[in-house]
TrEMBL record, chain A:
CDD domains: fer2. The keyword Iron-sulfur applies. Belongs to the adrenodoxin/putidaredoxin family. This is 2Fe-2S iron-sulfur cluster-binding protein.
From TrEMBL, chain B:
SUPFAM superfamilies: FAD/NAD(P)-binding domain, FAD/NAD-linked reductases, dimerisation (C-terminal) domain. This is NAD(P)/FAD-dependent oxidoreductase. Signal peptide: none annotated. InterPro entries: FAD-oxidoreductase/Apoptosis, FAD/NAD-bd_sf, FAD/NAD-binding_dom, FAD/NAD-linked_Rdtase_dimer_sf, Reductase_C. Residues 4-300 form the FAD/NAD(P)-binding domain. It comes from Pseudomonas zhanjiangensis. Its cofactor is FAD. Keywords: FAD, Flavoprotein, Oxidoreductase.
């Protein structure tokens, strides 16, 4: 199973092996990653699962849809060029080792 | 001394309250009492991805099983509360078991309104949709080429109709009021969704009531107030929801179409609080009971603060969403009291929004395939709320 790491703004790091097919938001909620809530359950409506991809992963993760891009334009905390809503990213083998920053 | 807090209900508001309580107070004792056999779960997918088989029952869970142990939250499932003894400060389960509390939270949710019994007593296969058990039964009914009659053109009815039409069913939706979404949205929003459904083959009949439904020749035959008849294999009724406030009423708490609470989520008994679909916020100017995920989460969170005597974080703008076919409706704010609307085209093709005003004051927006407008209005309304406070 692909390994996923969340780096939180308080310095805490959470790593776990995640089943393919689930979203990075679902994985984070199940692991109680602080700052990831996923209130709308992945319906692209709450923007409470905002993460920033680690630089190395920016071009490996498939890019956001137009709808996700629009949500990110006005996301709380401000958008960076590596911002994503993690409910829209499904875990695949390709993402093994991915690092995400939360609450930056 | 660490307080013993009991939460009746195990839905979105209950879990939000429990999670925040634990974050704020490592020492208090927390119990959740739910009458369903499932881990607390999300309801919105029941009319959408769960129904169509895209989402498994495991993935509906709000938190995994081990989360409750890790957070020292005592989760009592399949337990029905029959009454509340306020004098002894005990919750009484069906079967007689008594559970003491120092403070109590009612997060009992709401239940679907049903058709009067005399309309339906001679008919089978009439459903409402609220929980996993309902959705499981309806999943069994969702077979291509079956005929479905949906009664009620609110969000649940429309979402169900969309899921069924996508699966290949023949769908008729009947709305007794003048138009669909009559209580919740402006006619411009209703126009969009009517056209969307029609373009996917759903037949929408508005301003027509159902007089009776009977089993005839293996079908459900609905007689309509316009003299027509509709034959269906099964019927889904989505005509609104009623707050589960029986426990509150029976133990003498004030209710008003829901458990009456103040700004702190407190009922007329200072030891008892309520949150989510079952709670009616009473105010001098208005009373409001909101059925939404966001409201359940926010009120649950606010009650957790109140239970510990802390001030709750400032309220955010209410938001809602509905997914039907390939359209995403996102709503920011509450439109009640609007006296005019403006329709604006969005930046992308197919994006539009309906803005609700009372005089010059913006109240809410319905954004259709237009997330940037939705998010922008949320931010505008959030900023205004925080200024007022």
């Amino acid at each position: 199973m692909p390994r996923v790491t969340w780096k939180c703004s308080d310095g805490k790091t959470i790593s776990a092996d995640i089943e393919t097919g689930v979203s990075l938001m679902e994985a984070a909620v199940n692991l109680n990653v602080p700052g990831i809530f996923g209130d709308c359950g992945g319906a692209l409506s709450c923007a409470t699962c905002h993460v920033v991809l680690d630089e190395a992963w920016q071009h490996i993760v498939p890019g956001p849809t137009d709808m996700e891009g629009e949500m990110l334009e006005v996301v709380e905390g401000g958008r960076t060029d590596r911002s994503r809503l993690s409910c829209q990213i499904r875990v695949t083998e390709q993402l093994d080792g991915i690092v995400l920053h939360v609450g930056v | 001394m660490a307080e013993n807090i009991v939460i009746v209900g195990a839905g979105q508001a209950a879990v939000s309250c429990a999670a925040r309580l634990r974050a704020l107070s490592p020492e208090c004792s927390i119990s959740l009492i739910g009458d369903e056999p499932y881990l607390p779960y999300q309801r919105p997918p029941l009319s959408k991805a769960f129904l169509t088989g895209e989402l498994s029952v495991e993935r509906l869970a709000l938190k995994p099983h081990d989360w409750y142990d890790a957070q020292a939250i005592d989760l009592k499932l399949e337990s029905s509360v029959s009454s509340i003894d306020r004098r002894e400060r005990q919750v009484i389960l069906q079967g007689g078991k008594r559970i003491p509390y120092d403070k109590l939270v009612l997060a009992t949710g709401s239940r679907p309104r049903v058709l009067p019994d005399k309309f339906t007593r001679d008919a089978s296969r009439i459903y409402t949709l609220r929980g996993i058990a309902d959705a499981e039964m309806l999943k069994g009914e969702l077979r291509p080429d079956r005929r479905l009659l949906v009664i009620g053109g609110g969000y649940v009815g429309l979402e169900f109709a969309a899921s069924a039409a996508k699966t290949g069913l023949d769908v008729v939706l009947v709305e007794a009021a003048e138009r669909i979404l009559g209580r919740v949205a402006a006619s411009e929003t209703a126009d969009f969704f009517r056209e969307l459904h029609r373009s996917h083959g759903v037949k929408i009949i508005e301003g027509v009531g159902v007089l009776s439904i009977c089993d005839i020749d293996g079908a459900r035959r609905a007689s309509l107030s316009n003299g027509e008849q509709v034959d269906a294999d099964f019927v889904v009724v989505g005509i609104g929801a009623i707050a589960n406030d029986r426990l509150a009423m029976e133990c003498g708490l004030e209710t008003r179409n829901g458990v009456l609470v103040n700004e702190n989520g407190q009922t007329s008994d200072p030891r008892i609080f309520a949150a989510g679909d079952c709670a009616t916020l009473g105010g001098e100017a208005l009373t409001a009971r909101i059925e939404s995920v966001q409201n359940a989460i926010e009120q649950g969170d606010a009650v957790a603060h109140s239970l510990l005597g802390q001030a709750a974080p400032p309220r955010k703008t209410p938001w809602f969403w509905s997914d039907q076919f390939d359209a995403k409706l996102q709503i920011a704010g509450i439109n009640s009291g609007f006296d005019r609307t403006e329709v604006k085209a969005g930046a992308r093709a197919g994006a539009q929004s309906i803005w609700y005003y009372a005089g010059e004051t913006l109240l809410a927006v319905d954004a259709i395939n237009d997330p940037v407008t939705y998010m922008t209005v949320r931010r505008i309304l959030d900023a205004r709320t925080s200024t007022l406070e």
